[in-house]
Specification:
The complex is a heterodimer of chains A (176) and B (375).
Chain A (H helix, E strand, L loop, with lengths): L15 H19 L4 E2 L2 E2 L5 H12 L4 H17 L5 H15 L1 H4 L4 H27 L5 H12 L2 H11 L8
Antiparallel strand pairs in A: 1-2
Helix pairs in contact in A: 1-2, 1-3, 2-3, 2-4, 2-8, 3-4, 4-6, 6-7
Chain B lengths: L14 H21 L13 H35 L1 H36 L9 E11 L4 E5 L12 E3 L4 E8 L4 E5 L6 E6 L4 E6 L7 E6 L9 E4 L11 E7 L6 E5 L8 E5 L10 H4 L30 H13 L9 H22 L12
Antiparallel strand pairs in B: 1-2, 1-12, 2-5, 3-4, 3-12, 4-5, 6-7, 6-9, 7-8, 9-10, 10-11
Helix pairs in contact in B: 5-6
The chains are: A mainly alpha (176), B alpha+beta (375).
Amino acid sequence: MTAQGSGFGAARPMNPVGWLGLPLLAAVVMTVLFATPIRFFGLALPEPVFPLALAFAWALIRPSVLPPFALLLLGLFLDVFWGGPQGLWPLCLLAAYASVLAVRRQITGHEFLVVALWYAASTAVAFGVGFVLMSMAAGQAPSLFALGWQYLATLILFPFAHRLIERYEDADVRFR
Amino acid sequence: MSLRDGPFGDIRVPLTWSAAAALVIATIIAAALLMSHQRDPMKAGAYDAAHRAVDAVAAPVGGVLSAPVRWTHGGLDYVRGYFFAISENRHLKVDLRDAAATRDKLAQADLEIARLKAVLGIKTDPPLPQVAAETISDSRGPFANTRLANAGRDKGVTEGNPVLSEHGLVGRIVGVSDHVSRILLLTDAESRVPVILVRTNGRAVLTGDGGAAPKVDYLRTAVPLKEGDRVLTSGDGGVFPRGLPVGTIVKGGFDGGWRVALDSDAAPIDYVQILLFTDFAQLANEQALAPKELPTAMTEEPSQSIAPPIPPSATKPVAGAAAKSAAASAGAAAKPAEKLTAAEVAAREKARADAKRAAEKAAAPPPKKKHFGFL
């Protein structure tokens, strides 16, 4: 008897395209879109790190073998597309994912604001790792203004991460 | 027999563990990539195939995305020009009056500079070839500040070429594909540019950190800096030609140190000029520097030697031990010229030069001792 036929509909395996593939593609598209060199009233577009929202959401939805490699690919894309040191963003994204995976039992089921705080913390971990690695790679610390600006821009993405979590976290009750 | 039917069929690895294992493997791969990272624009092959492929795909996408924005800006400028034509006309009349006075001064200064150059025989650098390009993608984060320009190897762009906007230096090329090149901006954390401070004649290195205003590091000047000091490229190291406008000195940042407000920030960097400059050797006239034809040691006659004749005092014993040995060598080499080998001719010339030097040293008066008034 299969899982679907047993009546435990909630325990059916999720389609990886839905919770991994499409968000991954959306993150790539949004990153390219926000790299357009335009200015409004003298100000450039903010540059949020879209894959960080996915790193947070994927770790909460369910533990799986696929998200680390998806984040590795996304990080490599960011490095190549933005022209940074190769391997920098994969490590940042994986650090955020690891930090959330380690405490996912404490985060799941909480209200919006608490989860938002955890998201802010995991994003801070990612930027902290990036700060340390970039300081070592470039021989000097990156600007804290620039770091803070991109951190704030990334925090704004939390509603998207929350939407993804809400959509898929109940899809498999084994991981509640 | 499937795996479930075997002896390990009952073993179930928790998903969290398998996710953690995948995480470790992915982290190791990422760390290995970071450790193997290199970005040396002077090093061939530093820009790998993956970068070139992504740039080649990103360039047309960025071009399509930025085109409507440019059209909108153009339309807004047109409307603004229509409504503000009268006030703009007033401003332009004032500017024109000022510009006429400045033009006369510049013409006079140009004449004077040309005369002084002629008198002093100064040779100025020849103009560099340039390529115009449009920027089509932009990264502005704390860890990477780069842009893609739609001119690549097809237009002669190479790694290391400096990039200018209409206002000043923007950065340099760090990667080139067939039709696209990547510009490392001055604000990138890996950017270092040797600069000169115009007022103080001091030297420094402009160091990007991902912020809007790069830092002034390794400052070497006897005169203190002031806000508003002009900064140009110094040409040290040979990566940039000297004299490109960079910006002005400002105070800022968390550390309160000196920074440079970039000239190129005065307007959007839509269009750029890529200078096809690789090093100072291309500025020189290679033909003028080519070695001239000189007589070789094999065909040289002793009577027509370019070495000066040996003075008689050089062979005297007072010339000292060095002179003695040199004279002995010269004497030993005193054979008919037509029988000498190339090595013997070279040894003979060296001996002559040594003998002359020793003779001059022996003939020179002993140095006077310095006496100080209080001793």
